[in-house]
UniProtKB/TrEMBL annotation:
Coiled coil: none annotated. Residues 1-15 have a biased composition (Low complexity). The keyword rRNA-binding does not apply. It comes from the Bacteria. InterPro entries: DUF3311. Residues 1-21 are annotated as: Disordered. Keywords: Membrane, Transmembrane, Transmembrane helix. This is DUF3311 domain-containing protein. The keyword DNA damage does not apply. It comes from Micromonospora mirobrigensis.
Length: 84
């Protein structure tokens, strides 16, 4: 008696396409990636903020920049309920 052959997974009938949002707002998402890579921002100890050198408080500023940019791009590119 032979073992039953495993069933092949069913191919999806309709494949989902990738999002095709070519909005120019998406280019803003490069800002929080590129800006922290500029070494000129880190070449110094001053100004100090609450006693912390520039390097440390700029790390928090980059996080806030990323959140603000992502939120702005999301709000400007989200589709209305009727457009889905």
């Amino acid at each position: 008696m032979a073992a039953p052959e495993p069933e092949a997974p069913e191919a999806p009938t309709a494949t989902r396409s990738r999002a095709k949002d070519h909005s120019p707002w998406n280019w803003l998402l490069f800002v929080p990636i590129v800006v922290p890579l500029i070494p000129a921002f880190f070449n110094g100890d001053s100004p100090r903020l609450f006693g912390f050198p520039r390097f440390y408080w700029l790390q928090l500023a980059w996080i806030l920049l990323g959140v603000a940019t992502t939120t702005l791009v999301y709000q400007m590119t989200k589709k209305k309920r009727g457009e889905r």
